[in-house]
Write a structure and sequence with these properties.
- A six-stranded mixed sheet has the order 2-1-3-6-4-5.
- Helix 2 crosses helix 3 and helix 4 crosses helix 5.
- The longest helix is centred in the middle third of the chain and has 17 residues.
- The protein folds into two domains: 153 residues, 3-Layer(aba) Sandwich (Ribosomal Protein L4, Chain: A), CATH 3.40.1370.10; 41 residues, no CATH class.
- The mean pLDDT is 92.
- Strand 1 and strand 2 form a beta hairpin.
- It is built from seven helices and six strands.
- Helices cover 34% and strands 14% of the residues.
- It is of the alpha/beta class.
């Protein structure tokens, strides 16, 4: 599968062949959805908690005498109907972690990459580099490469402080190391910019072994 490679001015400089086992697989929406739900669930801390009647810190003294007050009989301030009392229902600490076989996780990433390529949301560039962090210059470069896309994801093959600081200062763009590629970021952004060094990382990790 031949795709064009652009330079930082947005002009095509060559074409490359993409591996079909990553970028031309049968797209499985169900698999991508399962991987997305798993990632979002695994990001939840599960530390939410309410205090029940036995956990609130209140006096145990009886509120008022049992009889001859004309009021309902109550024995504790910690009852759920009183301000400051325990909560009858509510979240408790729990583990939201979901498991998913490695083969299915890899298949979800390949499906996402194939879907993005089919929808022309992947843009390949020969290199992406700046000498110093310059947000305005990087904004112009991304416009040349990705056009008017509202949300842009820039993949990096290795750590590059200048590029990261330049891109991350933009409200509509984000950088991500290629080895941390995930289903949530792939599905969220309108354009995914892939320098060739990042493509090498993707092929080495997500290609068939």
């Amino acid at each position: 599968m031949q795709v064009p490679v652009l330079d930082m001015n947005g002009k095509q400089v060559k074409t490359i062949e993409l591996p079909a086992d990553i970028f031309a697989v049968k797209v499985s929406k169900g698999l991508m959805h399962q991987a997305y739900v798993r990632q979002m669930a695994n990001a939840r801390l599960g530390t939410h908690k309410v205090q029940r009647r036995g956990e609130v810190s209140l006096t145990g003294k009886k509120m008022y005498r049992q009889k001859h007050t004309g009021r309902a009989r109550h024995g504790s301030h910690s009852a759920t109907q009183f301000v400051g009392g325990g909560r009858p229902m509510g979240p408790r600490p729990r583990d939201y972690t979901q498991d998913m076989p490695k083969k299915m996780r890899r298949g979800a990433i390949r499906s996402a990459l194939s879907a993005l390529l089919a929808d022309n949301q992947l843009v390949f560039v020969d290199q992406l580099s700046v000498d110093t962090p310059k947000t305005k210059a990087m904004q112009a470069v991304l416009k040349n490469i990705a056009g008017d896309a509202s949300k842009k994801l820039v993949l990096l093959g290795a750590r590059d402080e200048n590029v990261q600081r330049s891109v991350n200062n933009l409200a509509d763009a984000k950088t991500l190391r290629a080895e941390y590629l995930n289903i949530r970021d792939l599905l969220y952004y309108d354009k995914v910019i892939v320098p060739l060094d990042a493509l090498d990382v993707i092929v080495s990790i997500w290609g068939k072994k």
